[in-house]
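User
New here, explain this?
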Amino acid sequence: MLNIRRGVLEDAKRMAELEPVIFPEDPWSYESLANEFSGINDTRYFVAEEDGVVIGYAGLWAIKPEADIVNVGVHPDARRKGIARKILTTLISDAEDDGITDITLEVRVSNRPAIALYESFGFESAGIRRGYYQNGEDALIMWRRKEEQ
């Protein structure tokens, strides 16, 4: 059974194991992910668990009234089942409940499924970050502004 819950530091190990599977070209390290749970910044993660195993996650950095979604990932074997949609719904709802009105993110220009998912949440293209990813690929900058919803 799928469970979406707030992420905790103990999830960083499993997230780090998933990173090279989900993002083989530029995975985050365990140290980077563990730092996300340090409490220094207003960082929030939600994880998707199936039978007690983390299979996906999404996180954002809140700089009220804005936020930046920094990563969204689902294990390849669990894709196309609505898991990313469920995690994002929870993440965005939590952010909006806390007064966040505008949310941004970057996504690979080649990642059409992710772009379509973000568009379904009301995100719109706002520009390109040239050479943003380690392999030189450009990122599409997207924004979701509350007043436009």
